[in-house]
Amino acid sequence: MAATRIWIKNPLAIFTANNLDAAGGLVIEDGVISELLKAGQQPSQPCDQTFDAREHVVLPGLINTHHHFYQTLTRAWGPVVNQPLFPWLKTLYPVWARLTPEKLALASKVALAELLLSGCSTAADHHYLFPGGLENAIDVQVEAVRELGMRAMLTRGSMSLGEADGGLPPQQTVQQGEVILADSQRLIQQYHQRGDGAQIQIALAPCSPFSVTQEIMRQSAELAEELDVRLHTHLAETLDEEDFCLQRFGLRTVDYLDSVGWLSSRTWLAHGIHFNPDEIVRLGAAGTGICHCPSSNMRLASGICPTLDLEAAGAPIGLGVDGSASNDASNMILEARQALYIQRLRYGAEKITPELVLGWASKGSAKLLGRSDIGELAVGKQADLGFFKLDELRFSGSHDPISALLLCGADKADRMMVGGQWRVIDGQIEGLDVAKLIADHRQAAKELIAG
Ligand SMILES: [Zn+2]
């Protein structure tokens, strides 16, 4: 059977995340981009379908590189609305410890649906809670990703340093090293797909310096090397964390990272705020990726990531919405707007452009996840596309369509395509009853807080 060829024709505007011109649109064949067209150019071969994109701004499907899906159950919870990271965590841990497979399934679906509707086609999640009964948390998440038809980098997180041993999390939320490593190995063997077009990938992700042992950091790095998967953790998010590292390990955060074998291009870090100039050089030389999480960093008053310095040193930059207890939205296109504005406060208006930030949210994020098949529009890349309309009141009177997306505050995609398949049409996710999902999720959130 001949492949289906689709022409995405004459978009209102298109951002390729590279220097290629696709003003006339692009052709998709078997879920992969087979041709980019200049203005007025026709596809080289006849197409079976044509989608007229004259009303759409087209972007590569955005890629979220840090989240905690389960936290959608604890958004805007009164007791932590005005707390910084450490007290915020200590107040939330006992609530999170009550998570169940059913609640995680609902939370993951909500987060993924929200991301998809905001232009995101690939999402990373950092799940580190495995209380009794929730040993199969990642398996639950795999199901949710498949249901939504998105791509995901699910990270097998972990916590192994409880309060009794000087860590931050309560003892009932930590696991033994052997259990963590055995489950990590199982998940990689069972689910990790390699090569172009992968839908599910697994990475290893001990939670943070104050919640895991040095041993599990080292062992995770060794296992990741052996099985060739990526490494992820939180680092240099707050000064409290820096103090913790100095007191417990006698090391600053990057020295700590180096000491456990993580200073490499296999690693991407969430936040990466409190680095000195020497540490920025070392992270850049190693090619360690940094996921910038602007909303969360403002919400918890953690600080501002030195993105341009890191990038200049050689560290790739991507974007993440972070967990929903600290954002509290999972909206990828709005996160790009937040990045634009907070980074302008640090580096000025001339250097931080909408194109730069959209590049972080697409091509930069793909680099963090170790993927070269997504994140930009070019021949041979996956047909993961976001389509935004500029027909709402907020866009009226705007001129440059790409800038308008961020400056006027676009918050939802009209259509989404993942691997050549339409997943969102007219702002609706194919095959998902959103009203029912909200009702069930809301109930689960109430139960979780009630205990
Ligand atoms: Zn996080």
From TrEMBL:
Gene Ontology terms, MF aspect: 8-oxoguanine deaminase activity; deaminase activity; metal ion binding
Pfam family, one: Amidohydro_1
Keyword flag Zinc: yes
Gene3D superfamilies per the UniProt record, alphabetical: Metal-dependent hydrolases (3.20.20.140), Urease, subunit C, domain 1 (2.30.40.10)
Enzyme class, first EC level, given as a word: hydrolase
SUPFAM superfamilies assigned: Composite domain of metallo-dependent hydrolases, Metallo-dependent hydrolases
Domain Amidohydrolase-related intervals: 57-392
E.C. code: 3.5.4.32
This protein's UniProt keywords: Hydrolase, Metal-binding, Zinc
Keyword hit for Metal-binding: yes
NCBIfam families: PRK08203.1
PANTHER family according to UniProt: AMIDOHYDROLASE-RELATED DOMAIN-CONTAINING PROTEIN, AMINOHYDROLASE SSNA-RELATED
Record family assignment: Belongs to the metallo-dependent hydrolases superfamily. ATZ/TRZ family.
The protein's name: 8-oxoguanine deaminase
Species for this entry: Pseudomonas leptonychotis
